[in-house]
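Narrative of activities, Objective 1.

The group set out to show that a structural description can be obtained from nothing but a protein's sequence at a throughput compatible with the screening campaign. Below is one input-output pair from the validation batch, recorded exactly as produced.
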Amino acid sequence: MKSLKKKPIDLFENLSIVLTGFSKADIVGTGLVQTYFDTVKKELGKEIFEAILNAIENIKISNPEHPSDKNARQIKDLMGNINFKTPVSQIIQLWYTGEWVVGTFSPENYIVSSESYLEGLIWKAIAAHPMGGKQPGYGTWGFPPQTFTSKN
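Output recorded for this entry:
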């Protein structure tokens, strides 16, 4: 990854922000950036992983949390690129579920760690807590459910 101008881990963080739609605070707050970086690098292999990081670096995103219209089009092109479509999908699924997905119902799919399950972005996206972990606390059933408004 010597051809990259930015640190690979920083590029992966930016990639994760744009692919998931979550903020840097949410991504870093999981405590899993390095774990996922290592997992993706191992699973995709050096060549594909470097190509994705080079692609995200070439987009030159000034603010990954609020990409410009031009950046958004470039990210959409990256996601639709035949060479990156599956790996990008795997990265998104990893962040949301904590599971590395090789293929539909593949026996090679695996949960990366117990933390990855607990910190899966899906729980934040659906305003829930992971079953068996991060319980809301005693007496919380007495409060009305949290409501959300659209950012749009």
